UniProtKB/TrEMBL annotation:
Coiled coil segments of this chain: none
Gene3D superfamilies: SP0561-like
Name assigned to this protein: DUF1858 domain-containing protein
Record lineage: Bacteria, Bacillati, Bacillota, Bacilli, Bacillales
Record-annotated DUF1858 domain positions: 7-62
Length: 83
């Protein structure tokens, strides 16, 4: 069952506002800092998933695949920007 679309150009805060379970999804993907009190409202406002992957040394393609495995559709309109 599709959980919705994750647009990689949106901030983590925007994605969490769109998808109720997204903070837990981020934690499962290894971005556990985002679930700490205040982090979503501060870092989440500027952090996108591609920026978070760079900061944490994670492979963006692996994270995208994990999101798809969790039932999300991934919209990667940032691809031209990241190349």
């Amino acid at each position: 069952m599709a959980k919705g679309t994750v647009d990689l150009s949106k901030t983590v805060l925007e994605l969490c506002e769109e998808h109720e379970a997204f903070p837990e999804t981020m934690k499962t993907l290894g971005f556990d800092q985002i679930t700490k009190p205040g982090m979503l409202q501060s870092m989440g406002r500027i952090m996108t998933i591609p920026k978070g992957c760079r900061a944490k040394g994670k492979d963006l393609e692996d994270v995208k695949e994990q999101l798809r495995d969790m039932g999300y559709t991934v919209s990667d309109s940032t691809k031209e920007v990241l190349s």
